[in-house]
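Support request, please re-run this one:
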Amino acid sequence: MNAAAPAEPSWAEAAEARVLDAAIGLAPRLGWGRPLVVRAAREAGLSPADTALLLPGGGRDLAALLSRRHDARALEALAEVDPLGLKVRERIRRAVEARVAAAAEDEAAVRRCAAWLALAPRLPLALSLLWESADVLWRWAGDTATDENHYSKRAILSGVLATTVGVRFERGAAAASEHLAAQIDRVMSFEKWKAGLPKLSETLAAIAAALGRMRYGAAEPPVSPTDP
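Re-run finished. Output below.
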């Protein structure tokens, strides 16, 4: 029996993809935020009314689209891998490497987005998107926990993912692989995870630092904290 053909994307999905494609190309020059959304939407052929309907949160919604695209790419890259045939250590390594590689495909845009998210008013959004990515990866890995283990696993993997992306952008793929291996060694056994679970303040600081290191430094244009 032939497999069913994939469903055609809805108008909203197709429009979001066009806007995100345009934004990825424009972000290195425009930075992240409302001006990028307006320009990218115009290039994608959307009216101001359609833009307001599709992306009411401006840069926040665009950041979510970028993160979720990379989650989807990671799952595509992992589609041929049977996680249940691997040890947990290898499942997590494969999952994080796939997600980091997906982000690296759009490195310049991710840097701009990360610099924008690193500002204090947007850090909750950054943490939410990291948690969402960690959840996607854990579910691929076969995790079915519904108690406190569900939350501790995702909290720790969020930090591992953020710092590994930061190392990849700072020092390259080989250094990121070494960093990831070291992190997995530290948190491999779940009992060790619980015993060594970092304080929330330490996790927030590590993630904020990783996001900040993805900036362009002096080349980063100033961004208003109130710019959506």
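Residues 60-219 form one domain. The chain has one domain: 60-219.
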